[in-house]
Amino acid sequence: AQVAKQHTDNYSSLTPRERQVLRAVAQGRLNKQIAYDLGISIVTVKLHRSSVMRKMQAKSVGELIRAWEAIPADIRANAST
Question: 72: phi > 0 → left, psi -120 to 50 → alpha, else beta; which?
Fold first, then answer.
């Protein structure tokens, strides 16, 4: 429960755009797919990804996805807003 709270607290520090990028990464989307979906450049996606990794305290994409999955589903459901 403490781990989930930590991830949720980290998640709450993300900007709406970072949340969108996190969701897309967790779904296995590639940078260029995310860029296309969100109408932003690949470089911008990479910047958001690195910011998400830092704020979520993840050292790898695997860790990032585990952190995402630890966040309660009702909070994750609002990630697109």
Answer: beta
